[in-house]
Give the backbone structure.
Amino acid sequence: MGANENAVIAATSPKPVVAGFFDIASFELMQRVSNAFAQSDLVPTQFRGNLPNCMIAMDMSQRIGANPLMVMQNLYVVHGNPGWSSKFLIATINSCGRYSSLNYECVGDDPEDKNYKVRAYTTEKATGKVLMGEWITWGMVSAEGWDKKTGSKWKTMPGQMFRYRAAAFWQRAYAPEIGMGLSTAEELQDIVDVDGDGNVSVTKAKTGKARFVNAETGEITDSLRTILPFCTVESFDAQKDGWKAVVESGKKKANDLIAMIQTAEILSDDQKLEIASWETIITA
């Protein structure tokens, strides 16, 4: 086979489809892959049965070159403002190939000493330049009120919190593209208060919107999730015949129905599984 024939074959061969939002084939692929994630028990609850959230996480994973499941497991959704876990952010910096591993300079040996401070630093491989981050001090912690929240980790594990915060400040100063301009989950938690039942909230006067952290899972959710009620057994039983009819008629897929319901009520995992079973029964 000659070079010209090879060139013709290469020119006429279909190009591989890449998941994305901006053409039909790419969007359909994105939906199919995201739907698989949405049905998995391995993804966090904010992605389970939620196709739109999974698609956004897929897009973010492509932009930073990370595994989609790893992104979902380290992304905390806060009403239009997702936040990374600090450990994920640090791992991303260390593995991006542009810098040596992130290190920390500590002044003092006791993190509870009020003169203790920490800053992150690393070396840029291309230039050999040492990039020093901002000092995180107890004065900053107190002034920002990070240690004044009920249940604050600054009271129980200050050494770890100093490093997490120093890493976040370094990343925003030198590599904002890695975090895509997002805050860390630990930073979001520092502006909330823990209630007596273990739930966490913050007033609108502080941030302009309420936020919620699940005490068991650590999941940070948005103001709508704070205000929305959980779907009780009575509420579910009263509405499920109508919901089931929507699925049986083919008007909505089970996952789409779950996403729609959760704009008004928060479904339990068992309720989501029951809704998903309606589609399984029909398609079997």
About this structure: The longest strand covers residues 117-123. The chain has three domains: 3-73, 86-227, 233-283. Residues 3-73 form one domain. Residues 193-227 have pLDDT under 50 and may be disordered.
